[in-house]
Amino acid sequence: MAGTSEPNATVARVDVALQGIEHAWLATRDGLATLSVAVAQLGAALAALKGAGFESATLVTAVDRLPRAPRFELVHQLHSLAHGARVRVKCTLAEGQEAPTCTHLWPGAAFMERECFDLFGIVFAGHAGLKRLLMPEGYEHHPLRKDFPHHGIEPDRLYREWDQQRRADWHPEGAR
Amino acid sequence: MSSPLRPVEEARDDGFFATRLDALVNWGRKNSLWPMPLGLSCCGIELMAMIGPKFDIARFGAEAARFSPRQCDLLVVAGTLTWKMARACRLVYDQMPEPKWVIAMGVCSSSGGMYDSYAVVQGVDSILPVDVYVPGCPPRPDAVIDAILKLQKKIERERPTARLLAGPDEVDVRGSGRLAYQPNEGVRRGVNDLHPHDPRKARPG
């Protein structure tokens, strides 16, 4: 990639930034510098990376690795325009386990965390206004989970309830 | 000005023609369809092309697209209808005054299309009565013009005056052979759904 730091330079810069925070570098197929941290240290690691010049969070998402024991893998991808460097931070997350929000560091991540909550059901502690983004309010499931059936669970339930209410409003006597 | 209803002997010298009231009303309705463009995805682009000068549905009297459902009588569901959008789509249909017709444009609105998924309504006929289905992904504007011509033929066969002579529930206005169009269990078409402010509903007794 033109205009970007060597991966080794990125690794060295991140290693300096994350002094005192336990992290492990992972091998990836796409060549992006990827490290994993524990959930307990995710907030501190992200804050340290923000301080080290990674001024934008380009992606906050998750992967459901269902047969694996902590099933979720939370992924933050950060970009530093100043250094021309990108880094990917992964951390594993069990079902029901909360992740720290990073909206105080990157306000733009709020939508991505909402999407992540909507589709995977991952709760970000400290997120102001964590509600569904894509699926309608009142929807009960998290569609990108691996155990969610492709055709959904009663996909028309919310519409049917609304439709019954609509007809009840129009015909209070219940004739139709 | 004198009344238009005069004895034939008086009007003979002015020239006149006789027709059925049904035919006259249907002629007026079918040549002045006002489409409600519910463009939900890429079909909406083809719909715009159809209204524009190159394909020009003004040739068939249907160019007056209005973005208020209260001024329209032809709902064109153009694109993928999700369950989240389904309520809005049904509301738009409810707000359109009778008589009204529906074109399901494209495979998504006809059957769900390639979106065989939890988020997409598998055909708008699960929430609305559809008059004409247009296949294609998206269909060419000519295909939708063909649907409008087919709909015009369908309107020609309707019996609008029958409702003047009997109550709305007793008459098969659409000529479809059924009293109430019910595409799916639990979904009613608009003819029998009276609005709270409908005068027929306020009638005592």
> Strand portion of chain B, in percent?
5-15%
Strand order of the largest sheet of chain A: 1-2-5-4-3
Strand order of the largest sheet of chain B: 1-2-3-4
Beta strand % of chain A: 15-25%
Main sheet of chain B, how many strands, which sense, barrel?
A: 4 strands, parallel
Runs of chain A with pLDDT <50, length 5+?
none
Largest interface: A-B, 22 and 21 residues
Q: What general outline of chain A do the C-alpha atoms trace?
A: elongated
Oligomer: heterodimer
The structural class of chain B is alpha/beta
Fraction of residues of chain B in helices? 25-40%
The value of Rg of chain A in angstroms is: 21 Å
Could you walk me through the main structural features you see in this protein, from its secondary elements to its overall organization?
The complex is a heterodimer of chains A (176) and B (205). Chain A has 176 residues and is α/β, with parallel strands linked by helices. Helix content of chain A is 27%, strand content 22%. Chain A has a five-stranded mixed β-sheet with strand order 1-2-5-4-3. With 205 residues, chain B is α/β, with parallel strands linked by helices. Helices cover 32% and strands 9% of the residues of chain B. Chain B has eight helices and four strands; from the N terminus they run ααβαβαβαβααα. A four-stranded parallel β-sheet of chain B has the order 1-2-3-4, sandwiched between helices. About 11% of the residues of chain B have low confidence. Chains A and B meet through α4 of A and α4 of B.
